[in-house]
Write a structure and sequence with these properties.
Blueprint lengths: L1 E2 L13 E3 L5 H7 L11 H12 L3 H7 L12 E5 L10 E9 L6 E9 L11 H12 L5 E7 L3 H9 L3 E11 L1 H8 L8 E2 L6 H10 L3 H7 L10 H12 L4 E9 L4 E10 L7 E7 L6 H13 L7 E6 L3 H10 L2 E12 L1 E2 L10 H9 L48
Parallel strand pairs: 5-6, 11-12
Antiparallel strand pairs: 1-14, 2-3, 3-4, 4-5, 6-13, 7-12, 7-13, 8-9, 9-10, 10-11
Helix pairs in contact: 6-10
Amino acid sequence: MTTSPVPQGDDFSDRPIRPVQYRDLEDIEALTLDDFDEDIDRRAQNFRTQVQQVRPWFGLFKILSFFPNPLQHRFHVYVAESLANRGEEGKIRGAIQVSPFNSSRSTWRVEQVRVHPAESLGEPKGIGAQLLRYCLETVWEARTWVLEVNINQKDSLALFRQHGFQPLAELTYWSLPPQLLQELSKQEADLPNLLPVSNADAQLLYQLDCVSMPPLLRQVFDRHIQDFKISLVDSLFGRCQSWCGGPQISRGYVFEPQRKAAIGYFELILSNQDERPHQAKLIVHPAYTWLYPKLLIQMAQITRKYPPRSLELISADYQHERREYLEQLGAIRSSHTLMMSRSVWHKIRETKPENSALAEMLQGLQSVPRTPIPSRMSWLKWPNNPPLDSLDSPGELPPVKPPSEPPDQGHPV
């Protein structure tokens, strides 16, 4: 087992790839303004919004990226410049954003891959391929890479498949209209054991997360208890965002007192000012799927305090009960994505050496089948055995006579 080499399709020296700088933000924002269908690729809009939010604090984020801290990889972006022979040296032709997926940074996520409209994203030797290979080679902490791509983006799918990414799970995005949320909020949730989330509950949430997904996803995500704790810096950063009119976050989990375990969890990202929908993250124990309507009613009641927005929810292909319930409820399918993963560990196929000095040396040590040649054997030279020349036939030996018994001397009286 060894680290798989990065495909040698193109040299990085002919197209400079480097970390993002402040002067690149305008060009990066321009990469998200091309003719994308927002229903198919809404990540372009999210990336553009993130660039606008980072611009006033870019110097602070750049300083924090040089030493370990919770905000070290908040805006981890690499850019590809134009070639010098094109007369556009310094212009940004592509950008890629990556971030750690877990606290141990053993799994990383490809957030964005953006190229200039004149470039082809799915070209094997294009800018997108160079950026992706650069991250696979540079981020040495990563043991596994994950990403999410829309099934209608053929160029992106071709790019990721060329670099060893394999399908991991199919995700469906559901949208609950404001009218449906208003009807749900009028019902009673009936959740007596609904508790607020704190860092003391990280062990319970970690166990719930492990039991709610297949073993392969659990191995790829490689989450630990620390992933379910909120650091002080993240808490202060979230409060500053809410004070400045940004989204607010509401969390809660359902506790089972008999088994001392968490059986349901939700996280709501509530939109205040812009027209973006509310986003919900939902984790339910497979044995307690009857919690789906109760948790949705609880989330719908929380959204009543905010401007009417639709609620976005995700279901995976292994969550059949959630999909059936959302279909019966009347939720609308907004998009369909594919989660893909790539491990940096691969087994190298062993090949026999050819035309080498070692092969010639080993060839002389191999046994060659030969016909047996009769020869004299040492046991035939015993005193009781006659020589081979006195035998009638070379394949027969005379019978060996048993030793003669001594005469009976009688028994003394």
